[in-house]
Specification:
single chain; At1g16640 B3 domain; 2 domains; seven-stranded mixed beta sheet; 26% helix; elongated; DNA binding; Plant_B3_domain; DNA-bd_pseudobarrel_sf; nucleus; B3_DNA-bd
Length: 254
């Protein structure tokens, strides 16, 4: 496999059209790669967008130039975007639809012109093993989102949680959940319920209206460990998937 530069991915959620935050874990590991201005693009040979990276309160963001890039690429809610650093000033961007198809591939399919067919033929002629390497690594990135520490939290089920299920403030801030009033929650059986989120002025947040009803049909087991994964669905809503992480609880429902 060729020596590829570092990369990270982002799922387009809230207010991504104006600026985009670079993951803290990436900044901590690869701070040296972050220039004040970078060039973004799919191929970096012709069409590139100059975007500034700014630091504020220890957080790093794509700012000036990002709105134009997001507009030109027609980024939408729930798009999965991979950022691959070529060097300190160039970042190759790959955009995927919620369906899993690459955005450029969707364009070729929906515009089946002779020009598109020639482009596909040219791409096939220039195909090499390095493309396989990129595809394999991208598949690993996509697979990692199934249980993603950045968009999920883990808890051990306790009796009091039936009536009160708080969400840690650090997770609320990271996911920018204060602007979300409700979510779709899916349990282990695949049942989906509407649940409201509450946000108090003192900073506390949690699952509110509809939560107790969700608990009643979801068969939580005392002392079992679960994970809630926050995933944008095809309808632009936020889906919360219930995942059983650890067996060995007391085997009885709370």
């Amino acid at each position: 496999m060729k020596n590829l530069g570092p990369s990270f991915y982002k799922i387009m959620l809230l207010e991504f059209t104006q600026k985009l935050r670079i993951p803290d874990v990436f900044v901590a590991e690869y701070r040296a790669y972050l220039s004040k201005t970078v060039n973004l693009g799919a191929d970096l040979s012709e069409n590139i967008w100059s975007v500034k990276i700014e630091e504020k309160d220890g957080e790093y963001w794509f700012t000036e130039g990002w709105p134009r890039f997001a507009q030109d690429y027609k980024l939408q809610f729930a798009n999965f975007v991979v950022f691959r650093f070529i060097d300190g000033s160039r970042i190759r961007v790959t955009v995927f639809e919620p369906s899993g198809l690459e955005k450029e591939a969707l364009f070729l399919v929906s515009h089946g012109t002779e020009e598109s067919e020639e482009s596909e033929k040219s791409d096939s002629d220039n195909y090499d093993d390095d493309d396989d390497d990129d595809d394999d690594e991208l598949a690993e990135l996509m697979d990692a989102t199934k249980i993603n520490k950045e968009t999920s939290f883990t808890f051990t089920w306790r009796k009091y949680m039936r009536n009160n299920m708080p969400i840690k403030g650090s997770f609320v801030k990271k996911m920018d959940l204060t602007k979300i009033k409700g979510v779709k929650m899916r349990n282990l059986k695949g049942d989906v319920h509407d649940v409201r989120l509450y946000h108090y002025t003192d900073g506390r947040s949690g699952f509110g209206g509809g939560w107790a009803a969700f608990v009643d049909v979801s068969e939580f087991v005392l002392d079992e460990t679960y994970k809630f994964e926050f995933i944008p669905n095809k309808n632009g809503e936020l889906l919360v998937q219930m995942i059983l992480m650890k067996m060995g609880g007391k085997g009885r429902r709370s």
